[in-house]
Amino acid sequence: MGMWLFIFTELLLFGGLFLIYSIYRYLNPEAFRLAAHELDTFIGAFNTIILLISSMTIAMSTSALQQKNKKLTIYLIVITLLLAVVFLINKYFEWGIKIKHGIYPGSEHLINDFSQGEILFFALYFVMTGLHALHIIAGMVVMSVALVRVQKGTVNANRPSLLENAGLYWHLVDLIWIFLFPLFYLIH
Amino acid sequence: MENEKPHIVPYRIYFYILAALVTFTFMSIGITYLNFGPYSVLGAMIVAILKSFLVLTFFMHLKFDQPFLRIMVSGVFLLFIAIVFLTFIDYLYR
After folding, report:
1. Among A18, A23, A175, whose Cβ lies nearest the Cβ of B55?
2. Which residue of A12, A56, A188 is in closest CB contact with B14?
3. Which domain range does residue A67 map to?
4. Least buried of A19, A49, A93, A147, by fewest C-beta within 10 Å?
5. Whole-angstrom Cα distance, residue A104 to residue A96?
6. How many domains does chain A have?
7. Which among A1, A63, A167 is the nearest to B8, CB-wise?
8. Which parts of chain A have pLDDT scores under 50?
């Protein structure tokens, strides 16, 4: 219950950003289309699939815990964490390429050579995917704590709350990405 | 939630949901490349909403939880839609 209330605040936090995005996209449709061509749909789609798989593995880990299969629970959490790392590595390269091309908030290239609408697109892109990446890192921390406590046995079939809540949080991160992906990578 | 009897979801259900989610992802990419003009955004958003529905219902266990959680989650989404609607009314008619 408490976890859900927290998830609601997170949804509305990103909701506000999605609202800003939709207004600016409505006001600058052409600039958003042009700017989105700078983004790599392949990396975006690849990261989408990674997050979806990781959501499945963390959901399965709760089932494994309830079935008292501690070993499988631990494997599934570790796989989820590894997938999260792969996601962040992709993000690192994706942002790295943008920054190398001089596209980052406040860069000379962005201010001088792009229209107002394109600058807005990239500002939203960096803020929203950046905030999302922070949530990935937070999710990894919570899952690592759950992992240690499953290992110790303080999180078990009778007391699964911590792992369940870590899973809920991770699905939230997945949920937000489900909307970020079409809005930033799929403008054609 | 401690005193409910836990509902163990079989692994294969999660796997089916993942398969559906991946299919939807490719569908939304396909819709974008076919380029239906303004309807592309609408199509991609409908697919995203379907995907989020699957994640909320199965991965986040809303299907197996108390019904009032479902009502609250719907409430939050309705609130968000209302805010977007009102903001656009403001922008369009000011």
Report:
1. A175
2. A56
3. 2-185
4. A93
5. 10
6. 1
7. A63
8. none
CB contact under 8 A, B52 and A179: yes
Query: B8 CB near a chain A CB, below 8 Å?
Result: yes
**Which residues of chain B carry a pLDDT beneath 70?**
1-6
Domain map of chain B by residue range? 1-63, 66-94
This model of the complex carries an ipTM of 0.92
End-to-end C-alpha distance for chain A, whole angstroms: 40
Tokens standing for A113? Answer: 């050579």
Chain A residues whose CB is inside 8 A of the B55 CB are: 55, 171, 174-175, 178
CA A32 to chain B, closest CA, distance in angstroms equals 12
Buried b (16+ CB within 10 A) or exposed e, A38-73: ebebeebbebbebbbbbbbbbbbbbbbbbeeebebb
Domain with residue A42: its CATH number is 1.20.120.80
Residue B4, pLDDT score: 53
Q: Do A182 and B28 touch (CB under 8 A)?
A: yes
CA distance B70 to chain A (A): 11
Mean pLDDT of chain A: 95
**pLDDT tens profile A27-46:** 999 999 999 998 999 999 99
Q: What is the pLDDT of residue A122?
A: 95
Which two structure tokens, joined as six digits, stand for B57? 């219902």
Residue A120: both structure tokens together: 């807005």
The pTM of the full predicted model, rounded to 2 decimals, is: 0.93
